[in-house]
Amino acid sequence: MSKVPVELKYSNDHEWVLLEGNRATVGITDYAQQSLGDIVFLELPQVDDIIEAGDAFGVVESVKAASDLMMPLTGKVIEVNEELMDSPEIINEDPYEKGWMIVVEFTDASQIEDLLSSEQYEQLIEENA
Amino acid sequence: MSELKRTPLYQVHLQTGAKMVEFGGWHMPVQYQGIIKEHQATRESAGLFDVSHMGEILVEGADALPFLQRLVTNDVSKIGIGRILYTPMVKEDGGTVDDLLIYNLGLNRYLLVVNAANKEKDLLWIESHLSGQVGVADKSDEYALLALQGPGAEKILQQITALDLKTIKKYHFTVGAVSGVPCLVSRTGYTGEDGFELYCHPEGVEQLWHALMEAGRDEGLTPAGLGARDTLRMEAALPLYGQELSEEINPLMAGLGWTVKFDKEDFIGKGALLKIKEQGADHRLIGLEMVGRGIPRTGYQIQAGGQPVGWVTSGGFAPSLNTNIALAYVKPEFAAVDTELEVLIRGKEIKAKVVTKPFYKKSL
């Protein structure tokens, strides 16, 4: 069973979002890392990049395939987890803590309404199963 | 598309926690514990692969040998009973219909082991070129196939068979019981490691699988899926049909010149291949190692100084080397080892260099 922490929000594209004030920390879910398998490569944006919700903010590659990382909230990137660049396997090991990818200062709080609760996300992955 | 076929081990795979994918018309396990773990287990101890999807075609009759000699590029007359030959089978223009193994079973009987996705095409091709006293039969439903691969393979297998495995040399086979299951045991594989392939009746394969897993428990034997099979064969630079080989790609271009025996009598495609040999193939298969950050994938463009010079056929992370590698076709002038090239990855030119194949060599 995939872990779905209740304190987080989720996107339909399997990113998780931790909201703190106008900041959002973003990573991919336990379900996503399990589906991808061994993660071996990561491309992340630069600090200060401004990215629209729904656009790709990076790429995650497993042994088998490359997948886009989708921005859940429009905003400016203020932190990037550089440790993942050398050790992308951290995402497999700890997707919600050490595996965080970026911190965003979001500009449109209304987009939070488009995110899923943990219950809704659990339902989504059950439907995918 | 017709319904996906299941190997006799389908339920065993599900119980073992396999992630199943579609491959060549079959439900196949792509991984169990994880591709990298299965890859490393195969390099360090052993991996057990269900490859029952492969096709088995029996060719027999008084004229079986001359028929096969005409059908394939390699020299079938060179293999005595109990031996195996790797060979391409090509069209008149030299393009590859399939690559296969031919087992000489004796008494003018040969077993052709072909790629799952190509089996129907191969059968049509073979039947449309029949000549002389030859019978062709699809025996795929009568065979399940396990591949036990890795440095621990012999020790594991020897525990459950009275066959003297030391006497089975590379590309040789014998028949006998393994854990009570009648098998054809060949010293072959597709991983760059020592290992065996075990052909048995589908009814016996579940018992065989469990007996091997039990015998290999202390040796670190791991069930391994198609994912690891692909990374292993890529590191060993073994061609995969549909990527390094196709109807548009001839064996000379693929670096398989050693399997094309121009000194034997006429065979299908001989004229075309001879011409290609004289003129030189327009592309060559090379090994690439990434210098910059990026993973080369099938179909990505290869460039030299910004100009397209080829394409990636197989690429990815190489677990045994901890680098990103690719097999690629490039124009001959860019094929020398150490040539600096670029791979176009999502619009960016990422540096790579030509390296010797295979990427991975088994330490003896």
What features would you describe in this structure?
Chain A contains four helices and nine strands, in the order βββαβββββααβα. With 129 residues, chain A is α+β, with helices and mostly antiparallel strands. In chain A, strands 1-2-3-9-8-5 form a six-stranded antiparallel beta sheet. A three-stranded antiparallel beta sheet of chain A has the order 4-6-7. In chain A, strand 6 and strand 7 (66-70) form a beta hairpin. The radius of gyration of chain A is 13 Å and the shape is globular. Chain B has helices at 10-15, 35-44, 64-71, 119-128, 153-158, 202-215, 226-235, 270-279; strands at 5-6, 19-23, 26-31, 46-50, 55-60, 84-90, 96-106, 109-114, 135-138, 144-149, 173-178, 181-186, 195-200, 221-223, 284-290, 301-304, 307-318, 323-330, 340-345, 348-355. Chain B is 20% helix and 34% strand. In chain B, helix 2 packs across helix 7 (226-235).
Bin the strand percentage of chain B: 25-35%
How big a fraction of the residues of chain A is strand? 25-35%
Coarse structural class of chain A: alpha+beta
Query: What's the helical proportion of residues of chain A?
Result: 10-25%
Distance between the termini of chain B: 46 Å
The helix-and-strand class of chain B reads: alpha+beta
**Total helical elements of chain B:** 8
State Rg of chain A. Answer: 13 Å
Number of helices, counting only DSSP H or I runs of 4 residues or more of chain A: 4
Order of helices and strands of chain A: EEEHEEEEEHHEH
Distance between the termini of chain A: 11 Å
Order of helices and strands of chain B: EHEEHEEHEEEHEEHEEEHEHHEEEEEE
User: Regarding quaternary structure, how should these chains be classified?
Assistant: heterodimer
Residue ranges of chain A: pLDDT <50 for 5 or more in a row? none
Shape of chain B: globular
E-strand count of chain B: 20
Biggest sheet character of chain B = 6 strands, mixed
Q: Sheet bearing the most strands of chain A, described?
A: 6 strands, antiparallel
Mean of all residue-level pLDDT scores of chain A: 96
Mean pLDDT of chain B: 97
